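User: Could you walk me through two proteins back to back? I'd like the raw sequence and the structure tokens for each, with a short line separating them so I can tell where one ends and the next begins.

Assistant: Of course. Protein one, sequence then structure:
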Amino acid sequence: MNVFNILCVGDIIGSSGVEFVKRNLWNIRKDNNIDCVVANGENAAGGNGIDSKSAGIIFESGVDVITTGNHIWQKNSFHDFLDANNFVLRPANYPDSCPGAGYNIIDISGYKILFINLLGTVYMEPGIESGFVTADRIFLREKDNYDFAVIDFHAEATSEKLALARYIDGKNLKTGVIFGTHTHVQTSDEKILKNGAGYITDLGMTGSSDSILGIKSEIIIQKFLTKMPVKFEVEEENIELQGIICKIDTGAGNFKCTGIERINFTES
């Protein structure tokens, strides 16, 4: 069996997360025979948003595609970068008039991979188009142009994530991997769905294990106790990289996921 290994990395939090990726990702790729890395980077710049500097470091560190989410618009200076670089994706269900692209077909090791970034609507952005509708439109438009798809569904509700995954997998649309991001908490429900898509509800994050979702614990606790506004500060100690490694069978041309493994990498 010919296998294509994809590493999907959870939300990279702040400069400490970016630097952790810079120090370790190439070795992780080598040790696990990784062919492609996709990482969510929407919090890479100071823990909120992404900028050209953090994106550049992430790419240089071994990431092939950066996905994002609802924080993509935090840095106005990044909008031009989005228009110029389709290897950073913003959610495809934002209006077409927004900067950047929501999906891209990229040739990696001779395979045409359709990367799609979608945003949830439950507890998040109710005014935007449903990710279900957006996905249908993209798959219809590109049905003959890709070998398999990789989807980041940046959403809050676990039910919405699993529903979208089962909806897409049920259509048997050559979907290799569907993963959730946004909550920064790694779930333990990794599985291969009925028609061969690898799935996990949330990858987790690349951030501090001593934090609350990547932010200094005392700040978040203060907010819960006082209900007063606080300034978020990224915790920079004890960083870990969370995500999944998926094995895609390329031998028979069906491009189904045949293996999925959660990872939690720390520096010794």
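----
Protein two, same layout:
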Amino acid sequence: MKLVAGLGNPGTEYEWTRHNVGFQVLDVVARREKLIFEPGRRLEGWQGRNDFEFARLPKFGDALLVKPLAYMNLSGDVLAPLVAQRCESPAELFVVYDDLDLPLGVKRIRPHGSAGTHNGMRSIVKQLATDRFPRLRVGIGPAGTDAARHVLERFHGKEQVEIEIAVAEAADALLDWLATGDLAGCMTRFHSRWNPGD
């Protein structure tokens, strides 16, 4: 079963903050597919921790969209048990998240790799004991001197327009992967679209 996880912090006070780009991408996917997120306790056959929301994607072989509702640095504690129960391997988990090492709006898909400086990804890699799962990073722009403050700030003015475009394009890529299961093809199609001339 494919499992697409978007990373963010729970609570309305964090909506459209830089650290919640992963949640925003999943919201776009859900709206396009006319899905509703449900509380984790309603997932059939699930007896683990319930601090997540999910939406079923039966159109794509009963895939799930998942938003961990623990704070960012505990994302792996939420996702690892779901991956263990629902996925044949970690490669069926696709994580979308913000990246302050990429310029605002820049998007990169990778089949695996280090967690970098992202605490949510560090938690996932640690709890899965592997980095061999695909991820889509969405650039939120450099932090300057205070990274912790930067990631909790909202986008302003033209930044909001730019990140909304990036979020919509990231949702396109996730839907392509869900439909085809072809990560290499997805990377080729979307990187060439996002970065013409590279």
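The beta strands are 3-6, 38-39, 52-57, 63-68, 93-99, 107-110, 135-139.

Let me know if you want the two compared in more detail.
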